[in-house]
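Operator note (shift B, R.M.): manual run for Flagellar motor switch protein FliM requested after the automated queue skipped it. Running by hand, logging everything below so the morning shift can see what happened. Input copied straight from the record, untouched. If output looks odd, do not overwrite the archive copy; leave it for review.
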Amino acid sequence: MTKASSMAGPSRTAGRINRRSKSAGPEPYDFRRPTNLSREHIRTLQIAYETFARQFTTILTTSLRAVSQVTLISIEQFTYDEYISSLSSPTIVAKLSMEPLPGTAIAEFSLAIAMTSIDHMLGGSGGPQPERPLTEIEAPLLNGLMDRMLGELRYAFEGIASTRPQLTGIEYNPQFVQAGGASDPVIVASFEMRVGAEECVMTICLPFGMIFPKLQGDRNDVQLSPAQRAAREAAHRNLVAGMESVPLDVAVRFQQMRMRPEDLINLRPGDVVTLNHPTTQPLAVTTAGLTFAHAVPGTQGSRLACLVVAPAKEEDRR
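Run finished. Output pasted below as returned.
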């Protein structure tokens, strides 16, 4: 899986954007951590983030009086540690609350873009910017721009959840941001962000547990046409019918017993191994290690068989 990372310099940032936009080959898949977002979820987020990108483009252009552009690149799932490790330092890492949703979201973009935006707000023409923390005069200017950005984020997400995004703090080193556990899954949206001649990849990181329940609810509340409902019901019937015909390995088992290694090694044909299974207790019928029925042994014609019976009562097992 390709990670997102933010670069401060224009040339390095441009190279990164090109790599992300042109990557169309196969990607590694970790079966230990399957992706839980369906295509419907991705599409729902894509619509919201594309709306946000258009609105934020307008905010930047009118506020900075400079040609600006914000374009959605991708929506991907990472762990929190993978996301934080992919970010450069220093950078702008804005911590966001999304009340009433739980958790902390993150909006991240390059320090160079932040300084260029502030320069335009102060009447400058952009150009090379110093790489340093914001001053007491510059910080409120960026906070004001961020507040307007969060207003557009709230508007874009109205179709998914009613939220009140608020800026709760800004860090310059991603490692100092504690917004989740290292293995917590997060959903990261990457945007190509341009302000004048400066460009970078901006990211918005949402905890998986924050947004996934809302995506599920949104999907369940979708109004379907009669044709869509009939197609979904037919697909469900076909799935159930297909699952009912899948062959499974079934075993009829006695209770487990313990033996010492030396006893196992010394076993010879004709030896008798005493089982702990009571004669009054039926055998367990299992599949994939799960017991789903009980049975007593028998025969049917020339074959061994078992008769499914009710499980033994607790007093019969004693």
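Quick read of the result: The domain at 10-220 is CATH 3.40.1550.10 (Chemotaxis protein chec). Residues 39-64 form the longest helix (26 residues).
Leaving this for review. - R.M.
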